Amino acid sequence: MERLAVSCCFLLLLSIFFAFADAGSIGVNYGRIANNLPSATKVVELLKSQGIERVKVFDADPAVLKSLSGSGIKVTVDLPNELLFATAKGPSFASKWVEKNVAAYYPETQIEAIAVGNEVFVDPHNSTKFLLPAMKNIHEALVKSNLHSSIKVSSPIALSALQSSYPSSAGSFRPELVEPIFKPMFDFLRQTGSYLMVNAYPFFAFESNSDVISLDYALFRENPGVVDAGNGLRYFSLFDAQIDAVFAAMSALKYDDIRMVVSETGWPSKGDENEIGASVENAAAYNGNLVRRILTGGGTPLRPKADLTVYLFALFNENKKNGPTSERNYGLFYPDEKKVYDIPLTMEGLKSYHDRRSPVSGTPPVARTPVNGGGGVSKSTSGNTWCVANGEAGTEKLQAALDFACGEGGADCRPIQQGSTCYNPNTLEAHASFAFNSYYQKQSRASGACYFGGAAYVVTQPPSTVWEVRVSNWILKSVKRE
């Protein structure tokens, strides 16, 4: 029976892997503000070798689009801000632009979206009023070429478009942008079946507020979580909180049905002295844990079924970018194609991924009091810690994480099989807590071993109910025997 149970868990795990692969997607931004980058042909080979299936570029360079032809990589191209005025002025320019930069390459180059402008609301050239007319003209040009059902039109916004972002439930757009821009833009996205593009950088929020924002919270590591007083939801990452602030702002305007793509996010591997948190270790942790979060974690606390496509920024360090040192050090790769740090970019790569935290850098692990009587805590510096299920995660996420723990995770789930000593109470949360803690203890209570996409958290006090005590004692004895 035990072998059958493990086999069943393994089969379930395989189906979960396939589901996760479809649920979340990772892409990368291919910026080229540098004078030392490899050729576009070599870049496409690099993308393919890393299993990257989506790429976003900041223009429509012919060499890049030709190199991507036949690669199978989905592409988002950009119409630069400086062309917004001409594109908005009339349909003729838009038609010629689409014909030259999109239709000429499609479908051999799998262009799936056009980003009209980039962070237009913070553009110093005051091009905001041209954005929506330009988007509409580009869409009409796609209709004319019969490409509108295959290629979506959107525009990346920065979080500075929000009037309020904390707590997430209070998310709202800047009032002066609501009527003239956001409402008509959301109507356009809804009518065309498109999505909102959002550039989100937790690094900026952490850098400016490192005295009050936990580094673990910013890097998707174990942490107590933050409860949103407005909706009661618990957040275990700054990224989720930022994304849900945008979702809340959309919901306040009655546009709950519009999807979101995170068009840029990342963490610099190097910065100036005052750029707190910019380091190779933190960049590796943020991007590596983010990939794990997206490919295995589903949606956000506010939108648990809103599986996200996320584009990491960026493919290369770009030596000609202006601004602080961090601006030139967001790359996953150096220009010679060597990795800045080693993280997985695919579901296959996640199987052997561990967040390798340095014991002498970053936020030191300290015991914290659980928030509102529950919630995650950092690994204690003394005594034992236990991993228990997060009942707020929902049935689907708990079941998926339980199947992983009992399958590839290698947790000993024999005691929770029917008829065994810890089968009762026969609830998903109880069984998941047993499996999660078994996995956590076998991993020597390593940082990140009690995450499961937000389905679990660590406690520093022994579990209080009878079944939890029995579970913990059994596991601790098992670990000692090993």
UniProtKB/TrEMBL annotation:
Where are the residues of the annotated region Disordered? 354-380
The protein's matches in Gene3D superfamilies, at most eight in alphabetical order, are given as:
1.20.58.1040, Glycosidases
Source species: Xanthoceras sorbifolium
Signal peptide as annotated in the record: 1-23
Recorded protein name is glucan endo-1,3-beta-D-glucosidase
Keyword Calcium assigned to the entry: answer is: no
Q: State the UniProt keywords alphabetically.
A: Disulfide bond, Glycosidase, Hydrolase, Signal
According to its UniProt record, which protein family does this protein belong to?
Belongs to the glycosyl hydrolase 17 family.
